[in-house]
Amino acid sequence: MDRTRAVLLGLVALLLAITVLLVSPFQDFVFLAILLFYPLKPLYDRLTEHVSPEIASTTLVVGATVVVVLPVLFVLRTTVRSITSLLGRVRRGEISFTQLDARVEELTGVDVDLAETLRTVARDIQFGAVDGVLGIFGTVTHIVIGLGLTMFLLYYLLKDADRLAAWLRATMPLPAHVETELYAEFEDIVHAVLVSHVLVAVIQGIVAGFGLVAVGIPNAVFWTVVMVFLAVLPIIGSFLVWGPAAVYLLVTNQPVAGTFLFVYGTIVVGLTDDYLRPIAVERYTETRLNPAVIILGVLGGVYVFGFMGVFIGPVVISSLRAVLDVYRREFGTDENRPV
User: Fold this and answer.
1) Considering Cα of 25, then 27, then 32, then 33, what sign does the dihedral take?
2) Number of domains in the chain
3) Between 90 and 177, where is the model more confident?
4) Within a domain: residue 6?
C-alpha cells in the first residue's frame, strides 16, 4: 500500500510539474480568468434562476469582453500606434525638441538632446525593421490568444463552478469544515484585493484625468484610461502620467498650469490612494488587509509574475495569513487563541 501510494504521489508530482510548464506561457490570462470569476459568480447565480447555465455563462462572458477585454485592446492599440508614430516622426526629423532642450538646459545646466535620445530608442527596438515588426506581431498575437483563452476559461469556470468545488472537496485530504473555512477566507481575500485595486484605480484615474483636462493636456481622455490601468499600482500608479505632464508644462513656460497639476496630483489624487483604498477594503469586505501587505504583495508579485502579480501577490501573502489563522483555530492551544 505504501509503495502504491508513493508511486501515485510521484506521478502526481511529475504530471503537476509538466502541467505548470504547459500553463506558464499563459499564466497571466489564467489568473485573469480566476479574478474575473469571483465578481461575476454572484451575477451568474442570479441569472441561472431565470435562464440556463449556458446562456448565463455566455451572457457574462460577452459582458466581460465588452467591459474588460475591448478597453484593454483599445489602450494597447492606441499606445502602440502613438509610440510608433512618434518614433517614426522623430527618426525622420519631423519633430524637433530644440525649445524643450534649451529650457531643460536653462533649468538644470545639463545639455540634452531629446530627439537623438528618441532616435536611439527607435534604433534599439529596431523600429521599422523586420525583426521589430515580427516581435510586435508576436506580442500582439500572444495577447489576443491569451485573452481568448481567458474568456474560454471564464465560461467554464462559471458554468462548472459547483462541480469543480465538489471535486476539490472530495480530493483534498482535509475535513469538510476546514475546507469551508479556507474557501470563505480565500474568497474574501480575492474580493478585498479586487475592491482595493480595481475600484480605487478607476476612481483615481478619473480624478487624475480631471486634472489633465483642467490644464489642457491633449488626448486627456486616452491618458485618463491609461491612468486607470496604471493606478492599480499603489504609490506610483497614475503619477507615471500626470507627473511627466506637470514637468512638461513647467519646462515649456507654463508654470501656473504645471504647478497646479503637480499640486493637484500630489494632494487630491494622492488622497484617493492613501485613504480611499483602506476605506474600500473595510467597507466592502470582512478581511482587513494591512497596507504594507498590499504594497509588498504588489511589488513582489510584479517581479515574480509580471503585471498580473499586482493581484496575485497580495492574494498569496494574505492567503498565507488565512491558512495560519485556520491552523491556529484547529490546532492551536488555549494559550495562543485570541481573547
Assistant:
1) positive
2) 2
3) 177
4) no
